[in-house]
């Protein structure tokens, strides 16, 4: 177990002489899980591109802005967030002013 902490190496547990389980730190497990999610998202994105499921970024942001405005806004927090997002997108020239 000490090698997990000191050497940053997982410990392999065997059954009948063959690797069966791996013990690793929570930190290493979380890093592996995060990387797995990232690779999955990249694979999904590549599949979308290959299938032609793409859109122009300006069209996307303009539609997003319309969709956000159509959401029933109950409270100033959402209104401030929407306004802030719009201002950032305008400043970056990503949506029409």
Largest sheet: 2 strands, antiparallel
In which order are the strands of the major sheet placed?
A: 1-2
Listing every helix as H and every strand as E from the N terminus to the C terminus, the arrangement reads HEEHHH
Q: What percent of residues adopt helix (DSSP H or I)?
A: 55-70%
CA radius of gyration is 23 Å
Number of helices: 4
Structural class by SSE content: mainly alpha
- Could you list the spans in which at least 5 consecutive residues all have pLDDT below 50? none
Strand content: 5-15%
Number of strands: 2
Count of all domains: 2
Our measurement of the CA-to-CA distance between the termini, rounded to an integer number of angstroms, reads 59 Å
Overall outline:
elongated
Give the integer mean of the pLDDT values.
81
Structural features, described:
Strands 1-2 form a two-stranded antiparallel ribbon. It is mainly alpha-helical. Helices cover 62% and strands 11% of the residues. The protein has 2 domains: 2-50; 57-91, no CATH class. It has helices spanning 2-6, 26-50, 57-70, 76-91, and strands spanning 11-15, 18-23. The radius of gyration is 23 Å and the shape is elongated. It is built from 4 helices and 2 strands. A hairpin with a 2-residue loop joins strand 1 (11-15) and strand 2.
